[in-house]
Amino acid sequence: MIVKLNIVLCFIFMIGGLLQFNDPDSFLWITIYFLALIFSLLFHFRKNKWYVSGSFALGLSLFSILLILKDPLNIEWLRLFDTFQMKDQKIEVGRELGGLFIITIWMYFLTGMSVKKTKFKRN
Questions:
Q1: Per the count of CB atoms within 10 A, which of 34, 77, 119, 123 is most buried?
Q2: Cβ atoms of residues 100 and 32 within 8 Å
Q3: Owning domain of residue 118
Q4: Per the structure, how many domains does the chain have?
Q5: What predicted TM-score, i.e. pTM, was given to this entire model?
Q6: What does the CA dihedral 58, 46, 3, 1 come to, rounded to 10 degrees?
Q7: Rounded to 5 degrees, what angle do the CA atoms 10, 4, 105 make?
Q8: Under a CB-based contact definition with an 8 Å cutoff, are residues 70 and 92 in contact?
Q9: DSSP E strands, 30-83
Q10: What is the pLDDT of residue 122?
Q11: How far apart (Å, rounded) are the C-alpha atoms in residues 120 and 105?
């Protein structure tokens, strides 16, 4: 189940990264999505180091907090997906936070699974 979910998320991260090319801050988001893809692939091939993916997850958590604190969000969450065009900056930040949340949660999960596998190898 975890292997299949990881493969699905690899495709989602790849598509998410490719869709960022038309964004004004595309370099940042392409980097985040493709790093998530790389860490997911490393986990799939059992090459992931828990402290590297954990550091990435921690960095994403801090970045999320800074993104929220930068501009207090008064987002109407149901309006995020009315259209796929950028209506205003707050809608865009809300969408970016959604992707960031998914990536961060998955990176923490991969980190936990990598730690678990490392502990079992030593015993």
A1: 34
A2: yes
A3: 2-122
A4: 1
A5: 0.85
A6: -90
A7: 55
A8: no
A9: none
A10: 46
A11: 23
